[in-house]
Amino acid sequence: MSDTTPVRWGVLGAANIAVKKVIPGMQKSALAHVVAIASRDKDKARAAADQLGIARAYGSYDEVLDDPEVEAIYNPLPNHLHVPWSIRAAERGKHVLCEKPIALSAREARELLAVRDKTGVKIGEAFMVRTHPQWLKVKELVVTGRIGALRLVTGDFSYYNRDPTNIRSRQDYGGGALMDIGCYPIFIARWMFDAEPVEVVSLIERDPDMKVDRMISAMLRFDAGQAAFSCSTQLVPYQTMQIFGTTGRISVEIPFNAPPDRPCRIFVDDGSDLFGGGVETITFPTVDQYTLQADAFSEAVRGVGGVPVSLEGAIANMAVIDALFRSGETGKWEAPAGVPDRHISR
Length: 346
Fold this sequence. Notes:
The protein has helices at residues 16-26, 42-52, 61-65, 82-91, 106-109, 111-119, 133-143, 177-193, 289-301, 311-330; strands spanning 7-12, 32-38, 56-58, 72-75, 95-99, 123-126, 150-160, 199-206, 213-221, 226-232, 234-245, 249-252, 264-269, 279-284. It is α/β, with parallel strands linked by helices.
């Protein structure tokens, strides 16, 4: 019989995504118990702990890693700190759920493989969409042939932020549109095709002052089809994903920031009527995808199933991002390099 004791979690940093989304979601899980949070500013950690009802607040990340009660770490630090602190956590015997993107490059992400294999801890990337019922249903519809043969995955993702003090505006911190939000349509395309792209091409526009990529259009060529997406950190907020097959199409209404307080919908179109007569709407009950993510990772810690997004899958996603950055410089199609021989599913 598996151990059903809730996994005791510590959080590195009081980032907005942690305080406003991930921790509240984790606290609704019967399998996860957030017991500690740290910040380099002890007062900030204490304020977050008081706000969220967390028992212990620390003024350094090392204090969380040294806490003997903490079994797993959630790492929402700025991108350039993902690998260093994930390694430190793993070396101290803590399982690690690290925010996306897991690293600044695939090469850096591979440093985690040896640490994981040496320590035996679980390490995964926090793509919460991997556990949401709407995406599990989309994958099921693709696999069972509801839309015929999969040929094309398209998407758009944007929001507006030109604050130079924001970590997403810092090139040295791994900021920019591709790392922050472009990683999502890449992830979805790889998942839907259950394969890695053979080559990719991109057009990148950079902010003239901050130098981060502020808008990118990209194409990914798979053996079985194509993917195309655009993303921007300086456009009106919007997001959509569409999955095209030879006999049908699936549209996901809110693909990435699925709300935790209302139902979600996908639309399955058989193509028989341009005015929507052939569209079936599938509605999903209200869930919190961060709760589901915590459930799945905590189960993996207890020996049930694997982490939702494996380290191998995280490295493969980073390899595509690397190739898109190279293409933006060369203006040519580029092949993702050194992808592990494993795809995105468990």
